[in-house]
Amino acid sequence: MERKTAWFLGAEAALYAAFLALDLFCPGRGWDLPLKYGGVALCLLFALTRAGTGEGRLVRAALCLTLAADFFLLVLDARYALGVALFCAVQLLYLARLRRMGAGLWLPLRLGLTGAALLLAALAGLLNPLNALALAYFPELVCNAAAALALGRRGRMFGTGLLLFVGCDLCVGLH
User: Cβ(34)–Cβ(43) under 8 Å?
Assistant: First the structure.
């Protein structure tokens, strides 16, 4: 692993540990917000330093949209539907990257999971525009993570990053 990558991963781990500790031991004070948003901004800055491949440009665009989505969801704590819609666009960019890497679309699984989630929400009387966006977004994220990991060594790092997003989103959903 190159030195710059090691520094980046160390800084991200430190930010994560700090905001996790704040979430667990000092909830509701807002001290964690700059750390969470800073972690996303650091990812974008790191991506901007990487080579200008087509895949790299897709990741940089996705991270720009992620930063915008988190601005609405974390910083403003408003316009949730717009924030989640931006995250849906992020998953489409990641899907485009996966296609460039040679991954399959996994279309039946994507449609099946999304359709089942929307149907269950409707049957439970919980379907509204925000929930519909979230229920379209999350299966895409899970399928993208699985598709990346299915690529083996070539997709391991990307898939691991997407799995971390899955864990993050599960925590947000449970909160």
Answer: no
CA distance 21 to 78: 25
Burial 101-110 (b: 16+ CB within 10 A, else e): eebeebeeeb
Q: Is the distance from CB of 12 to CB of 39 less than 8 angstroms?
A: yes
**Strand ranges (E), the chain:** none
Instruction: Give the sign of the dihedral formed by CA 129, CA 165, CA 69, CA 23.
Output: positive
The one-letter amino acid code at 123 reads L
8 Å CB contact between 68 and 84: no
Shortest CA distance to 114 belongs to which of 88, 150, 89? 88
Q: Which two tokens stand for residue 129?
A: 């525009």
Residue with tokens 């520094």: 7
Distances from the Cα of 24 to the Cα of 18, 21, 35, 70, 166, angstroms: 10, 5, 14, 20, 19
Extended beta strands in 40-172, E state:
none
Profile the chain (175 residues) by mean pLDDT over runs of 10 residues: 87 90 83 89 90 83 96 94 98 95 92 96 97 96 96 93 88 71
